[in-house]
Amino acid sequence: MNQVAAVFVLRDDGAALMQHRDDKPGLRDAGRWVPPGGHLDNGETAEQGARRELLEETGYICDELAWLTTLELPQQGNWSAYRLALFWTRYDGVQPVHCLEGQALEFMSRDMAQAFQVPVHLVKIWDQAIAALTSSSRVR
Question: Looking at domain 2-139, what is its CATH homologous superfamily?
């Protein structure tokens, strides 16, 4: 089964760094907004792949990375089934982020998810990431 990892980079207000995927035929979630991520390389752990993909797609180097969940997404049409590991990290507010893959990259508030066609399964995980951020902020 294909393995993919993605990272919700969150600002303190819960806005997430989202990537506007290319609108190419055959690309899963083409033209939609998703957190940065991609397929794992051979021998990579999900965390290693998540860090590498985040860096390759945004230029951002995350310090702490926390696991949220892993989903098994079924085959859909021409798209193979895959395992998606999702992580989150707090944006440091210092490093710039750059759109190095896809059409655009920007921080998006949670209430904009529907308007920007964020896949429903990812919106639910975004809510989990915000809860983790809020919980970690109380501990600080």
Answer: Nucleoside Triphosphate Pyrophosphohydrolase (3.90.79.10)
Domain boundaries, the chain: 2-139
Buried b / exposed e over 84-114, threshold 16 CB at 10 Å, is bbbbbbbbeeeeebeeeebeebebbebeebe
From the number of C-beta atoms within 10 Å of its C-beta (0-12, 13-18, 19+), residue 132 rates as middle
pTM of the model: 0.92
How high is the pLDDT of residue 138? 63
The three-state DSSP-derived secondary structure of 7-46 is: EEEECCCCCEEEEECCCCCCCCCCCCEECCEEECCCCCCH
Say how far apart CA 49 and CA 73 lie, in whole Å: 18
pLDDT reported for residue 93: 96
Pairing of β 2-10 and β 82-90: parallel
d(CA 129, CA 124): 9
Q: Among 17, 14, 34, which Cα is nearest to 130's?
A: 14
Which tokens sit at 76?
């859909």
